[in-house]
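Lecture 7 notes: from sequence to structure.
We start with the chain below.
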Amino acid sequence: MIVALKALAKRRWPRLRLRVILFAVLFFAAAMPGISAIFLRVYENTLVRQTEAELVAQGAALSAAASLAWPGGPPERPIDRNVPGYYAPEPTTIDLRTSQVMPERPAARATSRAVDPASIAVARGIDPLIERTTRTTLASVQILDRQGLVARGQGVGGDLSDLPEVRTALAGAPRSVIRRNGDYRPSYSFEWLSRASGVRLHHARPIVVGDRTVGVILLSRSPRALFRGLYEDRGKIALGVAGIFAVLVVLSGLVSRGVTRPIEALSAASREVAAGRGDLPETPPTAAVEIQALYEDFRAMAHAIDRRSGYLRDFAAAVSHEFKTPLAGIAGAVELLQDHGEAMSSVERRRFLENAAADTVRLSKLVTRLLDLARADMARPEAGVAIALEGPIRRATDAFNGASFTVELALPAGLPSVAVPETTLDSVLGVLLQNSRQAGARQVAISSRQTANAVILHLADDGPGVPLADRGRLFEPFFTSRRSEGGTGLGLPIAQSLLAASHGAICLAESLEGTAFDITLPLASA
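Predicted structure tokens for the same chain:
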């Protein structure tokens, strides 16, 4: 099922530009405050808590006024504001996400009990204070006696002691609750988005005289509507939106200059390079660090491809040239034998056949050496190789030492191990010693020196040396001064490729007489 859905998504997924994706991400991030304000009701919850805080403040003031006006109360004690805990701000408790919305508050029940006369007297005494405050706060205020009977406000004489908030206040603790507002009628089309539109906030606060709860101040008020609050704060909200979009524009420009434009330029440059035209682009200084690294990698790759392409072109031309001569000789010999074979003497026929056979041998040798060169070019470093040098050097010395050609060793004791396979060392030493012997040298001296990361073998012979004009082409494929003797010119290129596969190197060294080579072999520990 999941695989099928992934396949469907891949088929239907639209092709989007990077700038579109980044802009969508930034736009969504910029819109998140607005989305949370409406759908997570963060802003609306703030409005409700603000309303609760106002009811708490008004209730605390009216409760204090009623306590001071209560008949028969004990005299006020001196106030010591230095007592720890004297200042105790009361936090809000209503949260639209977690608070239960109770049913609409029922009307006060009829009862035969009489309202406490002290409550009625206090209600009349502070009634002007209540009227003046409610003109501003628009809150409904009721005063209940210690039995929960209404002494002032709607439903005078009725019983509200069954309400949870009243019971809590009669026990001596304030409480705020949310109830449905039965008189609410929607005024706006989008008021369904607001959870606080159809509710009313109720706050019950005890009237404490001495250590006794003698009554309750019961306040209720509808919270500020979400859309009215948005309208009233429209200036601040508009400024915030403008600021968010300004930041969005700046971030879009930053992303464009740091990511999208450099990637588009690199894409265009890759197409130009693939078509064989255009220069490599400069690395944009405003691009991100990763994009700058991508430019450098692209430049290195383009240079490597260019070098490889040049090598392949030159190699193909050299192969064509090297194969053309023996093939032409074989074709000529066959054609002559076909046309004039019967008229030729046996000596002439044998001479043409020997020439064709020699060209065939040369072609076979070229193919074999080309395969060796291909394997050398494709070789990769072997992990964990640690070879002692003395073994391969001794084998090469024993193989080439003779009456007319000798190899002398001047190696220090305890040569370190190198990270080059034995087969590579055997091949490289065999090529160099063979070249020296074929060039006419009678003696080769092998010495060594060590650097921090490598061992350098120095091979010097007493032969005629390499002409100055040929030194720059010595490692080119098919370059040889012994073509007439069957040389292919691939020995040194093969040796160079084999060493390069193990991070080694070979180069022509300066020598007063004869020919000298330096072979750099990385240490196994490095």
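Points to note: The chain has a mean pLDDT of 80. The domain at 289-377 is CATH 1.10.287.130 (Helix Hairpins).
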